[in-house]
Each structure stands twice: as C-alpha cells, then as structure tokens.
Q: What sequence folds into this?
C-alpha cells in the first residue's frame, strides 16, 4: 500500500478525482484546498502512476495497511445545494432536511458531485427557471446530477448527453426517466428544449454555441457554466444573438443565462 500526495486547486479537482478512481485508487482524501492524497494497493504501479500524474507534483509515501476506502469516505459529508436540494454520498443514510430533495451522489465516478461551484451555480439557476411542463436538455451530463435536479423540479421531459460513455453509464444508474445518450448537442433535434444546461469547459461552450441556439425553442434559455470569471467575455462573444439575462458568480467561477 502506498499513497501519492498531489497538488491541485479547486479548478479541475472533480476531474482529477475521477481520473484517480479510474487509475485504480483504493481511496482519496482531500487534505486542503490545494492538496489531496490518493491510496493504491499495487506497489509495483507507483512509478507509472507518478509519471501519469506528474503535472500534479506527486509525492510518494509508503502506507500502513488499513481500510483506506472507509478512511477516505469519512472525508465526504452531505451538502446543501440551492434552496431545495440535499446532496449525500451514496454510502450515507442521512435524511434530507424538511423541504429539500435528497440526491445520492458517488464522488469521483463522474463530474458533478455538487461540491464544485459551477455545479452549485447550475442547480441554483435550474431552481429559478425550471417549471412543470418544460423540456430540459443537459449537455455534458457527467454524473447526471443536473438532469436529476431538472427531473425533481418537475420538468416534463429531460434529455441528457455526454461524450464519455462511462459518464453516461454512471448517469443511467442515477436517473429515473431522462433520455440518455453518448454524444453532444449536435445530435439533438432542432427546437427540442425549452431550457438547456451545460456545465462544461469554456472551449466546449464556445464551439457548441450555434448548436445550443438550434436546439432551443423560441424564447428558450441556456444555462451555461464551467468557466471562470475572466473567461466570461470570451463566452459571451461566442453566443450567436439572443441576450444575456443573468450573470452569476461563485468564487472564481461564473454562470451565464442566455435567452435566444
């Protein structure tokens, strides 16, 4: 048993954790805002793992034998998201506070555990905008948390997609009714959604902006996040027509509500 201490700030942390699980980690502990520790069973793999995670300045340490999965799980706590949601690691049985929907999440399996600021911004925006009877499209669904939020808020139809087959498989296990597929907005019918939510990279938002406009119905709204405040103007400049209705921030991260 050994561990690697990795340096990584809040940006991209969910993706790093997902990659560590994919690499066979036996457990992960977040040490502080800039460091985390991942545990591995196969001592012979440490050189390859150090090379794989070299950008994160890995520091090797030999560890005593113990149940590191249980130890890492102790670090995850339920969180409140928006005004109506309670996000709980799937291995805990904490009940939701009165008036909140309970969503079980599997931290590390796919982006979208609710911990990241952009996910929280999107949940808050969906609370403001989703109404019964509307059709919602979640582009880059990750773990499926935003599709599940739209479903619980009463959306009549929820469609979700992701280019990562693993993410789609994870989302399928979390959701009840949404239509899920491997792919992106370019595979969706025109005017298929009243609301589109995309918590993805700024480069992906810019590239897909014309598709977002195509799949939204007249008067539709795109909820866009996954970028930092200094990237807002580049994203705004790529949006074809329409108007920005809201610009929200949380820490260094931003969300745009764009009406077509």
A:
């Amino acid at each position: 048993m050994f561990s690697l201490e990795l340096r990584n700030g809040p940006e991209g942390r969910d993706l790093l954790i997902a990659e560590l699980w994919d690499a066979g980690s036996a457990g992960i502990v977040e040490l502080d805002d800039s460091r985390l520790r991942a545990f591995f069973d196969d001592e012979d793999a440490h050189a390859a793992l150090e090379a794989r995670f070299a950008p994160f300045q890995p520091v090797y340490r030999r560890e005593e034998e113990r149940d590191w999965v249980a130890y890492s799980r102790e670090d995850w706590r339920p969180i409140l998201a928006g005004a109506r949601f309670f996000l709980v690691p799937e291995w805990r049985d904490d009940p939701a506070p009165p008036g909140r929907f309970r969503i079980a999440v599997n931290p590390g399996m796919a982006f979208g555990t609710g911990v990241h600021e952009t996910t929280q911004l999107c949940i808050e925006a969906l609370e403001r905008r989703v109404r019964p009877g509307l059709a919602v499209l979640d582009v880059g669904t990750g773990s499926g948390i935003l599709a599940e939020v739209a479903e619980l808020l009463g959306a009549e139809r929820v469609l979700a997609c992701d280019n990562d087959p693993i993410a789609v498989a994870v989302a399928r296990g979390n959701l009840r009714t949404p239509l899920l597929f491997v792919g992106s907005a370019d595979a969706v019918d025109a005017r298929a959604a009243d609301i589109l939510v995309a918590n993805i990279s700024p480069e992906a938002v810019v590239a897909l902006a014309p598709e977002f406009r195509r799949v939204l119905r007249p008067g539709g709204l795109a909820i866009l996040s996954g970028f930092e405040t200094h990237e807002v103007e580049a994203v705004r400049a790529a949006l074809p027509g329409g108007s920005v209705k809201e610009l929200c921030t949380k820490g260094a991260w931003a969300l745009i509500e764009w009406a077509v």
In short: The two ends are 54 Å apart (CA to CA). The chain is about 30% helix and 35% strand. Helices lie at 13-22, 46-52, 68-73, 117-129, 145-152, 165-174, 202-215, 232-238.
